[in-house]
Amino acid sequence: MLIRRPLQIPSSEITTPLVYAERRDFMRLLAAGIGTASLGISPSAEALDAPGNSLGKLISSPFSTHDDKPTPLKSMTSYGNFYEFGPDKDSPGKNAHRLRTRPWSVTVDGEVKAAKTFAIEDILSWAPLEERIYRMRCVEGWSAVVPWVGFPFSELLKRVEITGNAKFVEFWSLADPEQMPYVRIPLLDWPYVEALRLDEARHPLSLLAVGMYGEVMPKQNGAPLRLVVPWKYGFKGAKSIVRIRFVEKQPQTAWMKAGPDEYGFYSNVNPDVPHKRWSQATERRLGEFLKRKTLPFNGYAEQVASLYAGMDLRKNF
Ligand SMILES: Nc1nc2c(c(=O)[nH]1)N[C@H]1C(S)=C(S)[C@@H](COP(=O)(O)O)O[C@H]1N2
Ligand SMILES: [Mo]
Predict the structure, then answer these.
(1) What are the phi and psi torsion angles at 204 (to 5°)?
(2) Ligand 1: does its nearest atom lie under 6 Å from the Cβ of 142?
(3) Which residue has better confidence, 15 or 252?
(4) Does a structural domain hold residue 249?
(5) 35 CA to middle of ligand 1, Å?
(6) 97 Cα to the center of ligand 2, angstroms
(7) Which domain covers residue 278, as residue numbers?
(8) pLDDT of 12 higher than 90
(9) Are 79 and 286 in contact (CB under 8 A)?
(10) Which residues pair with 108 in a beta bridge?
(11) What is the pLDDT of residues 196-243, one digit of tens each?
(12) Residue 225 covered by a domain
């Protein structure tokens, strides 16, 4: 399991290489003394541990939105939530440099035939990396359009055998007070745990992300591995994942424990169901002034609404 392999992207899999990532990052890799393969750039294991380094050529995804302009990278790295590094929107950008992302491994356990631990280098070689431009919506009313880089969650299911009892999957973030100062303070019930129903996790839109904007994931955005679920409020996307656990019963999540009538298990973006303290009907894109209307399932209803057929989405908020 723990074999170190360089990231290799078969040239046959490469469809549309990212244009904007290319020249600048090529120069950066050259400056860093990193070799480039004849068929595109294959970053070394070391290069993949440095935020800002290019992830090389990426597959462009049919799931990307092209109607919306991506949010500036700077907005995404300087404004966000990562409570382990503090409760303010600028805390992650200021403090997440303390996170050490190597060595890093992810344990997969619970309702599996055999628990496994994967090194991050191994995970990075599972599948060719895809770029997915997704709309994102935070429960607090801000939104963004982000070119994530990763692979579908289903890639994990090719590598572990789940039991017939597996109905839900939990995502556990690192909770190390040495690196994450706010884990000493009970802002949330640490570690940060989020969860999905198994069929939600299996949905092709559910992404395990290792980067954004063509580059290695910034620490404040959840390096080295995080979840991205674009039809749900942003807090479902656990950052800096160290454990993935399959379970039989619907789990309690960190935010459900913090406020059970404010944060439900499903947390599907829904303009018709207000948060207890504010409306969810509109949102403001980072970097924009005017508000826009929030769409059901954050605009992904066509792809995901069928997962919830027959459910009362006011009750199952
Ligand atoms: N471990 C952990 N993951 C987390 C959070 C957090 O505080 N801790 N915040 C969540 C919330 S509320 C949001 S909106 C998104 C923000 O991700 P971004 O900073 O990449 O936009 O991360 C989510 N994942
Ligand atoms: Mo959020």
Answers:
(1) -60, -20
(2) no
(3) 252
(4) yes
(5) 34
(6) 20
(7) 6-308
(8) no
(9) yes
(10) 116, 244
(11) 999 999 999 999 999 999 999 999 999 999 999 999 999 999 999 999
(12) yes
Residue ID of nearest Cα to ligand 1 atom 14: 234
Q: Does residue 95 contact residue 87 with C-beta atoms inside 8 Å?
A: no
Domains of the chain: total: 1
Q: Is 192 close to ligand 1, i.e. is its CB under 6 Å away?
A: yes
Of 152, 182, 176, 13, nearest to 85 (Cα)? 182
For the chain, the three-class secondary structure string (H helix, E strand, C coil) is CCCCCCCCCCHHHCCCCCCCCHHHHHHHHHHCCCCCCCCCCCCCCCHHHCCCCECCCCEECCCCCCCCCCCCHHHHHHCCCCHHHCCCCCHHHHHHHHCCCCCCEEEEEECECCCEEEEHHHHCCCCCCEEEEEEEECCCCEEEEEEEEEEECHHHHCCCCECCCCCEEEEEECCCCCCCHHHHCCCCCCCCEEEEEHHHHHCCCCEEEEEECCEECCHHHCCCCEEECCCECHHHCCCCEEEEEEECCCCCCHHHHHCCCCCCCCCECCCCCCECCECCCEEEECCCCCCEECCHHHHCHHHHHHHHCCCCCCCCC
CATH number of the domain at 237, please: 3.90.420.10
Using the mean position of ligand 1's atoms as its centre, give its distance from the Cα of residue 2 in Å: 28
Q: Is the CB of 263 under 6 A from ligand 1?
A: no
Residue 58 lies in a domain: yes
Residue 157 one-letter amino acid: L
Query: Domain for residue 61, yes or no?
Result: yes
